[in-house]
Amino acid sequence: MSAKKGLFSKVGKTRIIPLGLKILIIFITIILLSNFATNYLSIQLSKKQIINLNNTIMVEQLKELYTNATNQFQIYNYSENKEESIDALKSVAESGFSNPNSVALGVTPDGDILFCACKNKRLKWESFYDKVTLAKLNTDYNHDIKEGSVSFKNHDGDYFGVYKYQADWGYYLIRAEKRLDLDANTRNVYLYALLIIVVLTIAFVIIGWVILRHEFMPVSKITSDLYEMQQHKQLELIDLSHAKNDDITYLAASFNSLSSSVNNLLGTFQKFVPKDVVAKAYTDQGIGLEGSQRELAMLFSDIKSFTYRTETLGNDIIDVLNVHYNRVIHNVHENAGVVGSIIGDAILAVYGTLDSKRSKSYNAIQAAWDITHATADLRETMRLRRQEIEKKRKLTESEEKIFIAVSLDVGVGIDGGNVFYGNIGSNEHMANTVIGDNVNSASRLEGLTRVYHLPVIVSEYIMNEVLQESARFRFFEIDTVQVKGKTQGKKIYFPFDTNEMEKELLEKYEIYELGLQAYYVGDWKEARKQFKKADLPELTEVFFERMGNKGAPEGWNGIWTMTTK
To answer: What's the chain's Rg over C-alpha atoms?
Structure first.
């Protein structure tokens, strides 16, 4: 087969880029980024060391200047010649200047400059320009901090240095360097390093291109053969007579094996169907399945402590699950829901796909409570059975574990919103499924039932839809949490069934909400008081653990971040 593929040929509208060129570009990019980053970090670290060294030098110079200032003050008291003393101080300060804009100042707490030595004679220091820094120096002085590092601004730029308060003269002695002087030196070093990197990179690119071109010559031949096959839409064998013994050759050999198998299958296929069907199947690679975006409610129910139950019951767990699911699935169907999937001990139900007089969210909550009641009935049945046995004899340790294991308890989480709903799979096998962030959210809400010891937890979406049609369920806000994998807080609610649950319990949840509001605004003392008064120990336990005996942390926004799913 002759190779007719050019350097940048196209397959359809897609341009083919040689593998060797890609590798070379990636390699060059990585090397350049690595060199730039390494040199940049090195220069920045060196810059930090230079600043530290400058500070060390300036500290020594400041000590000398401070000692001289003390001596000159005594001389001034004797001679009463202030200008002569200041000139002497300038002489000492200027002897230590090394940069074009080195400066030594004597700044009063009011910002007046009583002493100034500056290498740049064109620059006039009439007053201390940076009032913020001056205020900080005065604040530190009031806290008995009279020396340290200082950074400040003047009309001509930023400065950094060291200072010490001179009590005799009543001003801050400051020894500083202009930051621009240091940056200029660093910038020159960086430009030299950049030039060297560019020159070396060009040299290595030329060498790398020559080597890679030689090594990837067989790859070019293989891709040319594949390109020609694509143009003629006909599978053939790749010529491997001049190929190297590497992974690409192995890939080409595997392709030859696959090509032979496909050609054999196509030859057989063509004996049973028309050629145009064969051609379409070959070019289109089958037909994709479709679905649609819909607003649905998702219910996620999971058996608590399932690992313990499995370890205790062994294979008998299947019988327990069948009894459980017989009731749960009936509850789902009875409330106009469909079972999306069953994953071991968990079930996902979908609401909103079937016609119903009630909203999807209402049906989902009703099903959740039906599931909870059905599970509770099963536990009650097992409790009565246990009492019958205990009337005759004491349970063995093994029987005790079994009764605990079969006394199932579930948590239910419900969320809703826009999701993908439809069939996925292939023409040989497909499945009806629901996909979307709200599906995952329903699972997260179910997990939170273990944290707050509640049977059912729903989202704000579910609450809002139900409240539009019925007052049967009273929704109590439980918390605002940021579940794992999310970046924003989400309010969660407990759907209190006013038709079934006791009025006394309703009052407790009302008190609980008062405590929650205090908890949100950071009044944790009041929150503890209301939570204790609510007398819902299992629910409020998590809040007492969070708050402890402390107040709300700084920056508290009322959102609790969960670290587990």
So the answer is: 40
pLDDT in tens, 378-392: 888 888 888 888 888
> Six-digit token pair at 476?
């109590």
Contact 109, 141 (CB under 8 A): yes
Amino acid identity for residue 287 in this structure: I
Helix (H), strand (E) at residue 112: none
Task: Provide the β-strand partners of residue 300.
Answer: 348, 413
Q: What sign results for the dihedral spanned by CA atoms 237, 242, 244, 245?
A: positive
**17 vs 290: CA distance, rounded Å:** 33
Residues 96-135: pLDDT tens digits? 888 888 888 888 999 888 888 888 878 778 888 889 998 9
Query: Would you call 475 helix, strand, or coil by DSSP?
Result: strand
DSSP state for residue 299 in the 8-state scheme: E
Q: How far is CA 411 from CA 330, 363, 371, 486, 562, in A?
A: 17, 17, 9, 21, 18
Rounded CA gap, 453 and 340, in Å? Answer: 26
CA pair distance 184, 464, nearest whole angstrom: 63
Beta bridge partners of 416: 297
What is the per-residue burial (b if ≥16 Cβ within 10 Å, else e) of 82-91?
eeebbebbbe
Tokens of 236: 């053939």
The helix or strand, by DSSP H or E, that contains position 18, with its residue range, turns out to be none
- Reading across the β-sheet that carries 113-118, which strands appear in turn? 113-118, 103-107, 171-178, 157-166, 147-154
| CA 382/CA 389 separation, integer angstroms | 11
Q: List pLDDT tens digits, range 399-438.
A: 788 888 787 889 999 999 999 987 777 766 666 678 999 9
Torsion of CA 30, 35, 38, 44, to 10 degrees: -130
Question: What's the rounded Cα separation, in Å, for the pair 347 and 324?
Answer: 11
Nearest to 312 by CA among 402, 447, 207, 418: 402
Q: Which tokens is 54 given?
A: 């400058």
